[in-house]
Amino acid sequence: MTTQEHAALRALPSVDRLLAAAQHLIDEFGRPATTAALRSSVDAARDRVRGGAAAPSHTDLITAAERRLHRAHPPPPRPVINATGVVVHTNLGRAPLASAARDAMLAASGYCDLEYDLASGGRGSRTARLEPLLCAATGAQAAFAVNNAAAALVLALAALAADRDVLVLGIGNSAVDLAVETSRHSRKTYLAMRRGAHVIPKYVRGKPVDQLDSELTSRLPARLTRWALARLSAS
Length: 235
Prior knowledge:
The chain is mostly helical. Among the domains are: 3-72, no CATH class; 149-197, no CATH class; 203-234, no CATH class. The chain contains eleven helices and six strands. The chain has helices spanning 3-11, 15-20, 23-29, 31-50, 58-72, 99-107, 130-138, 149-160, 173-183, 209-217, 222-234; strands spanning 116-117, 122-123, 165-169, 188-192, 203-204, 207-208. The strands form three sheets. Strands 1-2 form a two-stranded antiparallel sheet. Strand 3 (165-169), helix 9 and strand 4 (188-192) form a beta-alpha-beta unit. The longest helix has 20 residues, at 31-50.
C-alpha cells in the first residue's frame, strides 16, 4: 500500500461521525438501518480507495447511504392518473375502490362484529352480510365468498363439473391442486402441458415430498431428483 493510499484510507470518517451528520436519515429510516447503510458506504469507499480512487467527502458518503436506504425502503404507492384507456389496469392497482367500499374497509379495520352475533351473544357467520347482497345481485339461491380466484374456481367446478370431463391447462402447484379437487366431482380430469412432467403425491413412503426433495437435491441434480421421486411414488 502506498503512502497516498494509506492517507486516503485514514481520511475516511468513522460511522459515528457520519451518524452525527445524518440525523435526517435517522429520523426517516431509524438508527439501525441508517448505521448499516453508512457502514456499507464506508466499506465500499474503502475498497475504491484501495483500487486507487480518492477518498469521498462526508457528504458523498451520506448521499450514497441515503440512496441505499431509499432502495431498501421503497415509498408506499402514490396516486396516479389512469390515462391508458384500460379501466381495470393491473399495473395501476386494477379497479379503484368506491367511496362506500373504502368506508367499509375503514370500519372493519378495527374490532368489529365480523363473526359475532350481537343479538344472540354467540358466534355468527362472516358471510351473513354478504350472502343476501350476492343473492339479490345474481338471483342465486345461496352465495359464498372466498379471497382468491383459484378457490373460487374450485368451488365453481365442484358445483358445475359433476359427471363431466374437465381439462386443466398447466402443471404448476395451483393447476395440480385444482385437478385433484376437481377429480372428486368430475367424470374424468385431464392435465395438459407443453412439456412432460412427473406427477408425484405430497407424501412418499410416509415422508413429505418437500423433505425428500431437499434431501435428494443436496446429492442429485434437480431433474434426476424429480425422476427419483416419481419412481419412489410408483413403487
